Records
---
Amino acid sequence: LEAGLLILVQYLLLTLFNLIPVGLRVVAIQGVKAGLYVAMNAEGYLYSSDVFTPECKFKESVFENYYVIYSSTLYRQQESGRAWFLGLNKEGQIMKGNRVKKTKPSSHFVPKPIEVCMYREPSLHEIGEKQGRSRKSSGTPTMNGGKVVNQDST
């Protein structure tokens, strides 16, 4: 029984996410344990990113049934303009964003506040500056797993 409980605790730690506001009804989703951001690419596939990019921004909407849905702020169906959503199938596997419908339970999430933390908002401006410069930077702090670190250490 203790081994099973340990596995459950480890599993639960991997399923906890920080929702970080980065705009009006826009959030970044960051894994608590690994500190990686959830991102969606141009094909609708989800991936993890160790840095905050525009692909890490998701619109957060409260649906009619009080569930929350998350859609990519960058990508949508080209012809119809329909948004691409985060979703999990019945087995808990990630679904491709363009296959997820906002009315289906696969896209419905229930955020549960466990702890309220104050984060410094990840800045796309800083990311642009960082990419435009060499590896050495001004030392402006950025977020890394909820901890403030200097960019020089990245």
---
Amino acid sequence: MQPNYYRVIKKATSFSGLEMISHAYGQIAGVEVVGFYLWLITEANIQAFNSEIRTPISRLQNAFNPFEIKKNQVPEWIYKTISKLESLGLVRTFFSPKRSEITFCIIDPLDWKEFKQNKQLKEKLVEAMGKVEYDRNCLAFDQIDNLQFDNALEISANFEVNFTANQSDVWFSFNFEELHKELVKNKLLISLDEKAKTLINGYFEKYKLSLQQITDCIINSTQENELDFQKLEMMFFQIVKNDTAPILETVSNNKDFFYKNEILDESTKKAITDCHVNFNSEKYLFLLYGKIDESQLQLVRQLRSDYQLLDKVINLVLDFSFWKNNGMWREKYILKIAQSIKINNSQNSYEKTLNNFIRALTLNKKHSLNNIKPVEKTISFTEYFEFIK
């Protein structure tokens, strides 16, 4: 549809840097905080050119105690001011007894949006300047987010639309354009930062969450056009947990899939096999252990890239290791198995790998560990598993 009119508006410039110190932090902690913070910045700039020179504490004494009320002492109010700066997250203080040296590390202030999202800072600022003045500032500096534009829908293009070869997201496999359309349909106009996108893409890749599931979670995690990241993460986690709970019960109670496979009923075998075959390995890890850490994810990636194992084979290996080690996570054990699978060229064969596991356990029953011979490089897959502890 061709528009008949246009207009141009400009977003108000938000507080940042030293303006935030004066207008926001200073309102909470007082003018001494502003003055001392500015003094610290000046000192940092000066000492940047003399990084090897240590400044005597007498400089603090002389700079802020000109009348020498307490000679050779740093005024008590300075320590109180530093304490306030530390509490506000503007300074970190380190003391080295060995060097008899105190170090003040200056931290950049939050910008206006970040400041508002900090519940403690926001409440203190409202208390200091009053609700009316606070609302006036919000109106001035958040106006672009609150304007309805006569119920117009945002149709802005993102970077990928014009500046990528295949016009798809460079960094993420999840289609954020489609997500944006769904959010607009629900009259939700929020901007997802890199952290939120990474979370969404991670759950999409690992657990195959649908566009509708992700959209619903974002809607339920948003209040007043502000996304609650922790709530979103918890909702994703709960979906995965609910989705996998029935299958988890099946998998975790069937050790006999390996140990007594020949007498296990076919329906149970099929249920477990379906888990191995149909889930990616990240999700299967969740089935077994209830949570996933980065080292486990890294191992799965290594099994794919370095050992060329298919996910269904990886899942079989993870399951076998889980039962063989009584539910304990043993990375070296898993890598030993993967190496043996690769040597025997069975990375793509679920059936061959399962049969070798079963045969290895059968052999273990027949042979005493006291009769184990040294493992040679030419050892067969089945023999190798006989001697894995």
